[in-house]
Amino acid sequence: MAQTEPDTEELLELSSDTRSILERHDLRPLWEVEDDMGTTRQDPEADIWKWEDIQSAIDGIERDVPIADLPPGFQRRVAVPINAPNAISNSIYVGIQTVSPGETAPSHRHSANALRFTIDGSEDMKTVVAGEEFPMENNDLITTPQWEWHDHVNDSDETAAWLDVLDLPFVLDSLNARQVFENHELERQPVTKTQGYWDSQYGRGRPADEKSDGSIPGPFEGNREATPPYRFGWDEMLESLRQRAENDDPDRHDGYSLAYVNPATGKEPLFPTMSFRAQLLNEGPTDAHFHNATEVYFVIEGEGATHVGDEALEWGQWDVFVVPPNETHHHEPDDEAVLLGMTDRPVFEAFNLYAEAEPSS
Amino acid sequence: MAQTEPDTEELLELSSDTRSILERHDLRPLWEVEDDMGTTRQDPEADIWKWEDIQSAIDGIERDVPIADLPPGFQRRVAVPINAPNAISNSIYVGIQTVSPGETAPSHRHSANALRFTIDGSEDMKTVVAGEEFPMENNDLITTPQWEWHDHVNDSDETAAWLDVLDLPFVLDSLNARQVFENHELERQPVTKTQGYWDSQYGRGRPADEKSDGSIPGPFEGNREATPPYRFGWDEMLESLRQRAENDDPDRHDGYSLAYVNPATGKEPLFPTMSFRAQLLNEGPTDAHFHNATEVYFVIEGEGATHVGDEALEWGQWDVFVVPPNETHHHEPDDEAVLLGMTDRPVFEAFNLYAEAEPSS
Amino acid sequence: MAQTEPDTEELLELSSDTRSILERHDLRPLWEVEDDMGTTRQDPEADIWKWEDIQSAIDGIERDVPIADLPPGFQRRVAVPINAPNAISNSIYVGIQTVSPGETAPSHRHSANALRFTIDGSEDMKTVVAGEEFPMENNDLITTPQWEWHDHVNDSDETAAWLDVLDLPFVLDSLNARQVFENHELERQPVTKTQGYWDSQYGRGRPADEKSDGSIPGPFEGNREATPPYRFGWDEMLESLRQRAENDDPDRHDGYSLAYVNPATGKEPLFPTMSFRAQLLNEGPTDAHFHNATEVYFVIEGEGATHVGDEALEWGQWDVFVVPPNETHHHEPDDEAVLLGMTDRPVFEAFNLYAEAEPSS
Amino acid sequence: MAQTEPDTEELLELSSDTRSILERHDLRPLWEVEDDMGTTRQDPEADIWKWEDIQSAIDGIERDVPIADLPPGFQRRVAVPINAPNAISNSIYVGIQTVSPGETAPSHRHSANALRFTIDGSEDMKTVVAGEEFPMENNDLITTPQWEWHDHVNDSDETAAWLDVLDLPFVLDSLNARQVFENHELERQPVTKTQGYWDSQYGRGRPADEKSDGSIPGPFEGNREATPPYRFGWDEMLESLRQRAENDDPDRHDGYSLAYVNPATGKEPLFPTMSFRAQLLNEGPTDAHFHNATEVYFVIEGEGATHVGDEALEWGQWDVFVVPPNETHHHEPDDEAVLLGMTDRPVFEAFNLYAEAEPSS
Ligand SMILES: [Fe+2]
Ligand SMILES: [Fe+2]
Ligand SMILES: [Fe+2]
Ligand SMILES: [Fe+2]
Ligand SMILES: [Fe+2]
Ligand SMILES: [Fe+2]
Ligand SMILES: [Fe+2]
Ligand SMILES: [Fe+2]
């Protein structure tokens, strides 16, 4: 409660007797509690991670700890940008992962939602989810939703790279929930569906008269429609961005901006905890605004700067940067640029607490 | 990710060169991050606050800092049970407040949701919300929802006591949101509605053809139907409990249990962040279960014990106790007892993360 | 398709050969079909049924066919206003029923939704629905929803009278659906609930954590939340009307108007097919409007006139009148009046076909 | 109310005096009304229209009334299967329309929902809806939803043929609603969007943060999400059918069955009044069932028979047939067949009145 209080400190002095009663019973007077609320955690700072730095960190890790020396099931190279206790933000985790030819990230499932956004992939680099092999071509986004088995298999002859994005900091550090985690008995789960199956379940035609029972996978309950396993091919996203650019006006703050929808509902957010946008910036600087949601960005292509308060985050392809809550910001592409925007806005909307405004000039 | 990992500590040693690259760029390898996640905050312990101790703490505060000596607008006596950084839990705040005859808790509004549960009240102890005076008779529950003006006026000749319950710890310490707060220009907001008005808007007949615009008060956005100002009279709640006890079977874990509904929807939860139940225990001990939501209880009447793990919290009228997340618990009333149950379960349900189970015997 | 077509009748003459092909195969050219569409049924006319006429008709029926002479299970006196093939309108059926002391209207259930609005009742005149006895006091409205057992028992020593309102004309004559109907094996269903039980299930507190399975009673499927058995006591409706009149502005077309809500949702309509309003007219004539929904009115108290096109329907207590679709109308009470308004508007809203406007002056 | 009544005709004789009171006041005793309800309209019979007969009827119409002789704006050849007063059923209208090279069906809009299913089309046969040209290739389904401008332009050098499907019989003859209709001031509406625009608005990415205002086009109100202009390309539908056939079990009554979804919601029905399915039959005869919804079928490819009661409707490509409500039926393809199934089931579901069962053996 950030209201201005009268200077009442002397007035509020308590006797040692009262103080002792309070302490013995784990009680505090309200005026002491008020001042401390909202101070247990810090918002992250505006910051950027350049791709070349990320790359050299991953190279260093690989040099020091060759994957081949590691026990099976533990062969991963992931560099994690840190700007909050354990992640790039208090809600969204981003890691940059590489998998070498022939490697497999072994199959498991967990309560946290995850997705992969392919930085450098190919048709033979596959994420297997819920029985289907999803090819990871460049800029494809693949969901590995709550409690679905998933493994990553590099059957190509090139090292693959992608973004891992999870809601772990929110789930574990903010909600204080447990992460429920389970390893598959096999390193690679059986492939039981033909390629394209999950897409066909959520296309323009859908299984008729099969009312979803609304069930949520795993030992969980809730009131959000579960996100299915799904691959968002980049071709279609880019075509939709181009259609918007040819026919519509851009959003003043986010350019031509497409939300990845939950295929089950056709509506954002993709996950109950995180929303994702493909943003095309091509008409000069956007207008400044601020909001209490955090934004994490990945640069799909192009160069430019994002101004956060007085700071300019200068970005190029594959850089990662973060816009903290409540800081005024706008984007300024050099020419045309495409960003992947990630935000915890759904968390605030779930409680009628999202707020957004433009700075008064 | 609490999975059991191979003992790979030596394997994972990094060179000082790589370590320096990582540190310079705020990067960490995944294996280090994994172990720290979920450790930034502690779950509260099972604990109980006996009414006589709360009472003596409030008396001590009043003795040391007479309200009459305080500046206007600062005249409140609130004892706050502490079991987490600033409240009884990581999500729900409970305070016990008394207001003496003639006093007013001055009018203001804020982004957090609040309610009052009357411990010791009367027809002339009034909470004024959104233009209507709500009498605070014993066991009445009165909402002061997000962004509605509210003030408390004791026009009776007895000191009144009630529970303040807010979602402040969740909003401020977990979500890291700002509390938006505003004082009314008047100490007492104008009374513009007749008594019973807000109830009449959410009764069996409702304003016809007036489609709600679904707007959320204040500078907020979200996707939950806003909770209106409302008084839940105890007589009706108790009558419904009695009807259930005469006609239905009790819930195995919570006895005859009625959720306070959001009057706008007729469904729980009362607030997007918190749910409240009136629970009648009269058929011996309940069955044990555990869940990842926290429960805070206030004893409306009766005596008994709640067993949490190996611990027995023995309670009587007006005591307050807390059942932490993931701890097995059951209730055992001496005879008939009535509890007010408060839980952050809606927070978990908003993300499909609620989990509940019975211990395997 | 009511568009103006060119006068092309000669042009559209078909050869006998073509005509014969068409007829042999049950085919028609579009231009012939177009003109006939929308002509198979007539809208009802504006009309009024005075209470004294209804009363004398019922008396005549009773005189000619004494109930006592009829076989068990067939003892009812109902006068049905006719303005469409089999009812007062193409969608809503209204009948005026009387039951003498000691009589029972035997228990049964059916697919159509029904309600009773008590004209002349008492505490001992009871409608039994789903195991509970609902007293029928004056102006009480009691639902007997789809597929719920219901019987009417007059344990008082006065003849009781009420309105029966059903969606039968819509279900049977418009939808061409079958009425599924079943007699109970007993004349009076067993009373298995205490009085007040169904109300307690849909009050301010509701059974906690018991997610409704959303099931619809009987062999039916659909996507609307089923209406529960329920008694809308008149005292509470009238109090809400008074609250509105003291605090709010009236609706320009309907005065102070309260919709009876489906208790399960807290929202109108009461049934998927029909909506009901208690309307208080006390501020002079209402403004004129027209809409494609039909309105049937019952005069709860007061006198006045409703102007439909050029016609004035002059009404007093207990009269029944109908406002046909698409006719301009307004109400003009002599002094204060209270109406029960009934409308098939939900049928149009279910298909995005409701339209309403004011006449251009 | 189809219950069996005692033979009470003599008992129920009314005096001429009472009869005269009833008639003078447009009143009837309930027992007379009951018997007549549900008899005002007939259900259609099971029937089939062979493509060659439809074709020869269209040829005859064209021979007798050359389009070139008709005034502009009136140039259409449509043969309408008749099985109910003005259409193939009481709810769904189907017409077979041909448009010659160079012709335009002029632009207009109306309250009824419509779609075209292309029988014989090409890239240059276009339906223009809401500013976009949708190519009509074989088996494409194109919506022209309520109140959207639409015209059909044959810029190819072949005659095109398609199915027109509208909810006119339901809207006009059952609901007794008015058809609101408006001609565009131009014969061809301006093309203001690039091809693919409407698809891009309802794809995997959708305009971010643009909360739909839920508005319904035209002067209409309702509670269903409006259907957008949309083209369902056959390639994608067929691919989804193949995916289902390779991975899933067929529906026992409808084979591999895909509902065309409302692109705004990702859920059936396509329109509030009508639902459409692409059905692949390839595993022998389906199981028999019956339901109170009507089914109209168009044979996309293959041969076989549909058994309705004792009757066998033998069908081949492009035939149209109808399964009336409440009649037991099953399909028996000769080999593999693909059907377009059309049903008014959503009308019954809107009122919790849909019923479906298997015959007891
Ligand atoms: Fe994972
Ligand atoms: Fe932003
Ligand atoms: Fe407050
Ligand atoms: Fe519990
Ligand atoms: Fe009945
Ligand atoms: Fe009206
Ligand atoms: Fe049309
Ligand atoms: Fe069928």
Outline of this structure?
4 copies of one chain form a homotetramer. With 361 residues, chain A is an alpha+beta fold.
Report what the structure shows.
Chain A has 361 residues and is α+β, with helices and mostly antiparallel strands. Chain A has two domains: 10-201, Jelly Rolls (Sandwich); 233-357, Jelly Rolls. Chain A has seven helices and 24 strands. In chain A, strands 2-21-18-23-16-15 form a six-stranded antiparallel beta sheet. A six-stranded antiparallel beta sheet of chain A has the order 3-4-11-6-9-14. Chain A has a five-stranded antiparallel beta sheet with strand order 8-7-10-5-12, with no helix packed on it. In chain A, a hairpin with a 2-residue loop joins strand 7 and strand 8. The longest helix of chain A has 14 residues, at 51-64. The radius of gyration of chain A is 23 Å and the shape is globular. Mean pLDDT of chain A is 92; it is low at 1-6. At the A-B interface, helix 1, strand 1, helix 2, helix 3 and strand 3 of A face helix 1, strand 1, helix 2, helix 3 and strand 3 of B. Bound molecules: fe (ii) ion (8 copies). One fe (ii) ion is lined by residues 108, 110, 114, 150 of chain C.
Shape by Cα distribution of chain A: globular
CATH homologous superfamily identity of the largest domain in chain A: Jelly Rolls
| Helical content of chain A (DSSP H or I, runs of 4+) | 10-25%
Give the helix tally of chain A: 7
In CATH, the topology of the largest domain in chain A is named Jelly Rolls
Instruction: Catalogue the ligands.
Output: fe (ii) ion
> Biggest interface in this structure?
A-B, 103 and 103 residues
User: Can you tell me the number of structural domains of chain A?
Assistant: 2
The tally of beta strands of chain A, per DSSP, is 24
Major sheet of chain A: 6 strands, antiparallel
CATH architecture of the largest domain in chain A: Sandwich
The average pLDDT of chain A is: 92
Enumerate the strands of the largest sheet of chain A in spatial order, edge to edge or round the barrel.
2-21-18-23-16-15
The CATH class of the largest domain in chain A, by name, is Mainly Beta
Category from helices, strands and their pairing of chain A? alpha+beta
Low-pLDDT regions of chain A: 1-6
Protein name (chains A, B, C, D): Cupin domain-containing protein
Region (Disordered) (chains A, B, C, D): 192-229
Pfam families (chains A, B, C, D): Cupin_2
InterPro entries (chains A, B, C, D): Cupin_1, Cupin_2, GDO-like, RmlC-like_jellyroll, RmlC_Cupin_sf
